[in-house]
């Protein structure tokens, strides 16, 4: 009797979250799957059951190119954010001794997360433009004679923006895991004659893996699902899957956008499923 | 204290560069927003003025910045309150290991990792097909919750993983009902973390772009308005707007952090009445 009471209260407490997710997560996914089989005229969509959208998607060479580009962005961003994020977290967790300083530095790293991504993207323009700070500086140093054209509206600027926006998704979980490493393990390693590098590679790195995995999930999914960073930072000259979808939406071709979205969702979920094999998220919080 | 190794200074320098990388660009547009009236989008500064800020307060040729700001703030508050309430309830539920908790947990994780444009597209399609009016306070509100609630839930997990159950047991032993235990023991203890959940709720909503894109209807939120400006505004007025809303974000963050800090101080001062014969 007690147990069932507990169950019922549990359900009641979980009900609001469940309802929101049903209405605004599950239902939209179902809707997208349904609409992906519909047909479209130039200005409207009509219910049907046809595979045209998928056929077109899988037969177009553009699809493969764009999925390839998306994975490329995800991989490069992942590698860079991991390297930077790990180093930053390592410094804060093991080299900063005062807890107050640690908290302050941690906040410095996380505050940009609570500001606007759009503005953080816009703020790169005075740096990277043809007459931007980077080009002006390099010319005045005599490193280059002419402005570099590939700084803005290129793969370079897209990845730079991704790293700028998403590195803290690596820093936070990695720092969180590092802070929970028992410091006596490090002492033990040193007492047994391990060098700093050996301690890092054989003690800290393995123990930090769950944090790395959580950060990886964040960064990979954010980059794979992005459409606005690529559009803005490449000046619409580069494409990824998100842009493919948003272009179709712009042309009111919802069924075709939905089909691409379904394939994107499947890709993302497969990647997550693989990553989740390495970590139990709930235990790591 | 042991002497700092050389590694410390290398890492500290790296950290400094990282901070510069994080904040440098926003500082730059902060400076550039004070361009003179003839100034362009990059250095050199063409005089120093507040011309572009004043321009913001005048009638705009395009868009409705202040309307968008009001809507974003309103929506942020709505999302914040909902996120706090729903996350706390769900956090309490998950402590009870109810049937179906696994499924709900994975749904929340899916909500976090699903590409935002899918939410935008799906919610937009549903509202269209059902003949409902797409509006920032309905479809936009719901779409944003799918982004803020998982964060709130994860924070609640972190909070309850560190929660000392013996406080509850003590309350129960002294005859408190389940509701009294919650109201007078659990909620006060987790209150500072709720400030954190509120901070996530408000700021993530206030800055959200992708999930609101197709769900806000005919009235833009501020991020949508700003993005619209990037395509047709080529003066530093966009920097002035960026600087202002970033300053607003910083003020909000500072208020939340200050709130949490004051709460912590008060608790340290008033927290324990052990041994005072109360």
Automatic annotation (TrEMBL), chain A:
Keywords: Cell membrane, Membrane, Transmembrane, Transmembrane helix, Transport. The keyword Methyltransferase does not apply. One of its GO terms (biological process) is transmembrane transport. Residues 67-275 form the ABC transmembrane type-1 domain. One of its GO terms (cellular component) is plasma membrane. It is a multi-pass membrane protein. Coiled coil: none annotated. The chain crosses the membrane at residues 12-38, 73-91, 103-125, 156-175, 254-279. Belongs to the binding-protein-dependent transport system permease family. CysTW subfamily. This is ABC transporter permease. It comes from Pseudodonghicola xiamenensis.
Automatic annotation (TrEMBL), chain B:
GO terms for biological process: transmembrane transport. It comes from the Bacteria. It is a multi-pass membrane protein. The chain crosses the membrane at residues 7-34, 74-94, 103-127, 147-164, 185-206, 237-262. GO terms for cellular component: plasma membrane. It is found in: Cell membrane. Residues 69-256 form the ABC transmembrane type-1 domain. Coiled coil: none annotated. CDD domains: TM_PBP2. InterPro entries: Bact_Polyamine_Transport, MetI-like, MetI-like_sf. Keywords: Cell membrane, Membrane, Transmembrane, Transmembrane helix, Transport. The keyword Manganese does not apply. Belongs to the binding-protein-dependent transport system permease family. CysTW subfamily. This is ABC transporter permease. It comes from Pseudodonghicola xiamenensis.
